[in-house]
Design brief:
With about 300 residues, the protein is an alpha+beta fold. The chain is built from 12 helices and 4 strands, in the order ββββαααααααααααα.
Length: about 300
């Protein structure tokens, strides 16, 4: 499998694809028309040295993915908000500029709330829950392991819980379409509906794998946090999150460029997790995924190059 450099995410009734500094969002509107918006995204950091610095680039990439992801989710949701608004009052229209400012504010607030929620649920809750076992277990290492297991169980439970929601299931289907489109071209096949349908919905560079490794690496990292103060232990757990994110990114980045047997083996748990966060898309969803790829990526030239390399 060749590395294309293209990545993306699912949005509300659509797919966002990004290649280098360009991204495109393709959305299937309520009237079934596919609308595609293509834009440049220069990111939050312009310093080339920092952007390429090992571990640091992972932190930057994570923040940029959050910002861009919320922005594209808000954009995709706006089509369905507009549809609801038309049903309520077809005569009222909002000025475009005011809508953009509102979307930016909402995206910023959502990111902030999401980060606080994530830290509270996946870091603070398991930490305090594990303290209950201190009454019965003397080993600090075992307590840390219990905390890690609780963190992992909460992560699984969260994904299983949201996967029961109808809207989320559809997003997971578009997530599958995103992966299948990328896998299709990275395996040297023409980007057609039939070829995409045959492709895998699992991909080593997926954000689900990234989050899984964040959880696993955070468990390993907390083994080295041995201080007496309970509050300091919690603060240090939160403080290492950027480093953990940086390490996780480096592994995902390596996995996406390598077919090494060991790397493939270590990638398997993340791929298994993707069975929960992706679903098989229908043909209309695949068409949306194809539209988003074609807006930012010359897949025909890329596929031709892959075929030549495989033939040589």
């Amino acid at each position: 499998m060749a590395y294309s450099g293209i990545g993306g995410q699912a949005v509300i009734e659509g797919v966002m694809m990004k290649h280098k500094d360009t991204y495109a969002v393709a959305v299937r509107k309520p009237d079934h028309e596919i609308i595609v918006e293509k834009k440049n995204y220069n990111g939050i950091c312009k310093n080339v040295i920092l952007r390429n610095l090992i571990f640091v680039r992972g932190i930057i990439n994570f923040i940029e993915s959050m910002v861009l992801g919320m922005s594209t989710l808000t954009f995709s949701a706006s089509f369905f908000e507009e549809e609801d608004k038309k049903k309520d009052d077809s005569s009222e229209e909002f000025p475009q500029e005011r809508n953009k400012k509102k979307e930016s504010l909402e995206a910023g607030l959502t990111i902030a709330v999401s980060l606080i929620f994530a830290v509270a649920i996946f870091m603070v809750l398991p930490f305090y829950a594990s303290l209950i076992f201190q009454k019965y277990i003397a080993s600090e290492t075992l307590i840390i392991l219990i905390e890690g297991v609780l963190r992992l169980l909460i992560f699984f439970a969260y994904i299983l819980l949201i996967s029961q929601m109808e809207d989320v299931r559809r997003v997971f289907m578009y997530h599958g379409a995103e992966h299948k489109c990328i896998n299709c071209i990275e395996h040297g096949m023409d980007l057609t509906v039939e070829n995409v349908k045959k492709s895998s919905r699992e991909h080593k560079r997926c954000g689900t794998s990234f989050l899984f490794f964040v959880v696993i690496i955070s468990i390993l990292a907390t083994m080295f946090i041995r201080v007496d103060s309970r509050m300091l232990r919690l603060v240090l757990r939160i403080a290492i999150i950027p480093l953990v994110a940086g390490i996780s990114y480096e592994f995902i980045r390596l996995a996406g460029r390598s077919d090494n047997a060991l790397i493939n083996f270590l990638s398997k748990p993340g791929l298994w997790m993707q069975r929960l966060t992706t679903r098989e898309p229908d043909e209309e969803m695949i068409e949306v995924g194809i539209a988003s790829v074609e807006a930012v990526f010359d897949w025909k030239s890329y596929v031709e190059t892959v075929r030549k390399e495989e033939a040589s």
